[in-house]
Specification:
The protein is an all-alpha fold and 162 residues long. It is built from six helices and no strands. The protein folds into two domains: 118 residues, no CATH class; 43 residues, no CATH class.
Length: 162
């Protein structure tokens, strides 16, 4: 089960990195700054931390006599959001419980800050640009479709659909 989580998160990270390459290739810097950067930060802080917990849990021997109770990754992730990063006293991931709680709380707060950064700046900037140019959204969409048809017809991509 944990291996499938690692593979799935790795696949999501590759998808976000491919989006970055598309943004760079098409010179879409607004998408790169307002979408890719907060997405990759969010992905690594939440899902990357979960994968780090999996590897830490795998690398420690929890079976020797007197060993602490193995931490529950699911409980840690839930408590990261709902309990301010608090962990169960009997099962810290490593020796210093206070450091782990502080780390989890800070990572969660940064991830929460990334959410409005992903959602708000791009639409606000686009609305401002549209109002500045005096173009309505419908006209902008129609102009974009016409440009796409012109570009693709020059390449012969839409010959069957005209």
């Amino acid at each position: 089960m944990k291996l499938s989580v690692i593979i799935g998160v790795s696949q999501m990270i590759v998808g976000v990195l491919l989006k970055a390459l598309n943004c760079i290739h098409f010179s879409s810097w607004m998408d790169f700054i307002c979408e890719f950067i907060p997405q990759i930060i969010f992905m690594f802080l939440i899902f990357g931390w979960m994968i780090a917990q999996i590897f830490i849990k795998w690398s420690f021997d929890w079976a020797y006599p007197g060993a602490p109770t193995p931490p529950s990754i699911i409980t840690n992730m839930i408590n990261m959001a709902l309990a301010g990063g608090k962990i169960l006293a009997e099962s810290p991931l490593w020796g210093d419980q206070a450091a782990q709680e502080t780390l989890q709380l800070n990572m969660f707060l940064i991830a929460v800050i990334c959410i409005p950064i992903m959602l708000l700046p791009k639409p606000i900037i686009l609305i401002w640009c549209i109002k500045k140019k005096g173009i309505t959204c419908e006209e902008d969409v129609i102009q974009g479709i016409e440009m796409m048809k012109k570009d693709s017809s020059e390449k012969g991509l839409l010959d069957d659909y005209d």
